[in-house]
Write a structure and sequence with these properties.
Number of strands: 8
Strand order of the largest sheet: 1-2-3-4-5
Number of helices: 2
Distance between the termini: 27 Å
Largest sheet: 5 strands, antiparallel
Strand content: over 45%
Order of helices and strands: HEEEEEEHEE
Shape: globular
Helix content: 10-25%
Oligomer: single chain
Structural class: mainly beta
Radius of gyration: 15 Å
């Protein structure tokens, strides 16, 4: 879970968080045969899904099949630790997929359905 999510966050250019999950856009596409990262533009969604009355974190890429990742999932939160100032270096909308540009650094926290922290890490996305 953490390895896949970390790779997606590091390769994303746009990110939008909502109460049920997170949508990422950037260099996230996978080769359909090998499932290896192809670094082509793509969109990934991590979201809460309910299956047999269980809360589950699932992942879908470019609107494809949902892959179950974590049973008894509670929530994902993103806390920006730096903010971008509007300038001439903003990424083009095509690169971010129309989503807000990902912060330079942020803390991600993934919690189980009982509130326990499963994973917390600071991601330095665009290192200077």
């Amino acid at each position: 879970l953490t390895g896949q999510l970390r790779i997606d966050l590091q390769n994303a250019r746009g990110m939008q968080v909502d109460p049920n999950g997170i949508t990422l856009h950037g260099f996230l596409a996978r080769d359909s045969g090998s499932r290896n990262l192809s670094l082509r533009a793509g969109r990934v969604r991590y979201a809460l899904r309910k299956v047999n009355n269980k809360r589950m974190l699932a992942r879908t890429s470019d609107g494809g099949t949902w892959e179950p990742l974590w049973i008894n999932f509670g929530a994902i939160s993103i806390d920006p630790l730096s903010f971008r100032e509007a300038d001439d270096e903003d990424l083009p909308m095509a690169e971010t997929g129309g989503l807000p540009e990902i912060p330079e650094s942020f803390r991600i926290t993934v919690r189980s359905d009982d509130g326990a922290i499963i994973w917390r890490e600071v991601i330095q996305h665009h290192e200077n």
